[in-house]
Amino acid sequence: MPTNVIMPALELAQETGKVLRWMKAPGDKVRKGEPIVEIETDKVTVEIESPASGILSHVTAHEGDVIPVGHTIALITAAGEAPSPTPSSTLSPVGRGQGEGCRPVVISRP
Fold first, then answer.
1. Are 14 and 44 in contact (CB under 8 A)?
2. I want to staple 50 with a disulfide (CB 3.0 to 4.6 A). Which of 1, 30, 82, 96 is the partner?
3. What is the pTM assigned to this prediction?
4. pLDDT tens string 56-82
5. Rounded-to-integer distance, Cα 83 and Cα 66, Å
6. CA distances from 18 to 31, 68, 109 (A)
């Protein structure tokens, strides 16, 4: 079963986080605890670690995207495992960069 990589809450009142850069690309092997993405809030920039070992897949948040806390931004799957279709995925407006507007992004919910 795939493991969700979610936008974490790094601060008490944090509502969103901005994806600065992915350190791993979709299809790359990752180990649990290995940094995979760099996230920025209004107060801190942090490297987020992989929650599981496997293959990084279904990256839905791209560099510059502002994502609500708790939303899935990627999946970690086992080698050879196909991610199961998400029964309840929704479209959510996500800010991009320096006030460049919004665009819909498919966000899966666990």
1. no
2. 30
3. 0.72
4. 999 999 999 999 999 999 999 987 776
5. 24
6. 23, 9, 19
